[in-house]
């Protein structure tokens, strides 16, 4: 039928060509759906089954990798409110000693994989490290490292004599 309509399209004038193209546009999705039924037989093909299985494994692998990275880098929302971590130090592979500031008081706590222990209340509070100050220190160290790479005679911003 499609062949007959295309011959009719060539021989007809401009007014009927729109009707014929409308017919072709209407019939084309049905023809492609029949080819889709033919493609479902390809699921019995071992190569396509292996391809689908490997694609599924890839997606599951990406999900687990993202979960690992989120856990490793502790992706949590920013700190807000009355409580914040002033200082933290690793005491072992899964143990940590932290100083928390709650309001005006600071507390020393020990954190392990299984529990959290209050160690002491600090009488003299530690100065809270500001992120800008630590960023500035990093910036200075990075600048010095890059300067020493570019000019090996430079040490601590001064040139050797």
UniProtKB/TrEMBL annotation:
Query: Is Transmembrane a UniProt keyword of this protein?
Result: yes
**Highest taxon of source:** Bacteria
Query: Which cell locations does it reside in?
Result: Cell membrane; Bacterial flagellum basal body
Per UniProt, the keywords (alphabetical) are:
Bacterial flagellum, Cell membrane, Cell projection, Cilium, Flagellum, Membrane, Transmembrane, Transmembrane helix
What stretches pass through the bilayer? Answer: 20-37, 49-70
The record's InterPro entries line, in alphabetical order, gives: Flagellar_biosynth_FliO, FliO/MopB
Reply yes or no: does the keyword Membrane apply. yes
Q: Which family does it belong to?
A: Belongs to the FliO/MopB family.
Q: What is this protein called?
A: Flagellar protein
What is the native source organism of this protein?
Fluctibacter halophilus
